[in-house]
């Protein structure tokens, strides 16, 4: 997620088929087949000569804490949330519990379907741009200000209760009637990067459409706390396509003293810096939530805002700092 924003989700057009391309494909297949045969011979010779062929990053039979392979990657343990789903009065608790992979994957991975029922997809400016967001009531969406600045509200469609973007028509959709960006939002340093969208009509609460909890404790999230990010953004800084499936990852809250950019640039009272070992938000994730455990519920304590490329630490808007702004729109 670079500073220029919003992050456009551009899907590459399908490749046209031609006779020339067919010949190229055939040649490519023949070359690959030949390399596979040579590889098999090389492996056989390697084993015969007693050469050690190590497996990297894929030995799931051993514990990450006792694994002696220094090349192995690990992910952070997720925040602990054991809440009980209670219907429309519930915030931050899903009927379908999220699940997390064992500590062997470094990047994000597909989220359990409908385990984050407050996350929504925003198709902006008649589908010219894409961002994420999350429900804070059934008629209000929180997102990043840079996603919707100078956008006509009626050109934004919000989709809820979806897992894949390709099947978004099967979920609920609402058009935005009005939007409010923070009056002090800065396009130069992305401070106060927060906006609230009011929908023309409320979403229907279901087991797959819910709302996220909020906290106004400005000390949260705390340094070194583990957090979850989720969104449909790109999976690498060189990709021009957003993900069809909802992805998630576990990251860690960093201090402003971190040597890794952009932590040293943040205003800690209103921003959060977070990331972990390459797990990061990216293009198309703007506006999506950073979630932590507060009072045994998933709480949206951050908003994906800005960063320097993908795969390092990123900056998130600290939601708890905006109590008066939020309540002026949605009430107490």
TrEMBL record:
Any single GO BP term: proteolysis
UniProt key word Transmembrane? yes
Q: Which InterPro entries match?
A: Peptidase_S1_PA, Peptidase_S1_PA_chymotrypsin, Peptidase_S1A, Trypsin_dom, TRYPSIN_HIS, TRYPSIN_SER
- In its UniProt entry, the species of origin is given as Rotaria sordida
Tagged with keyword Chaperone: no
Query: What does the UniProt keyword field contain?
Result: Disulfide bond, Hydrolase, Membrane, Protease, Serine protease, Transmembrane, Transmembrane helix
**Pfam families membership:** Trypsin
Give the superkingdom in one word: Eukaryota
- Give TM segment ranges: 22-53
Span of domain Peptidase S1: 105-331
**SUPFAM superfamilies from the UniProt entry:** Trypsin-like serine proteases
Q: Which GO terms describe its molecular function?
A: serine-type endopeptidase activity
Q: Protein name, please?
A: Peptidase S1 domain-containing protein
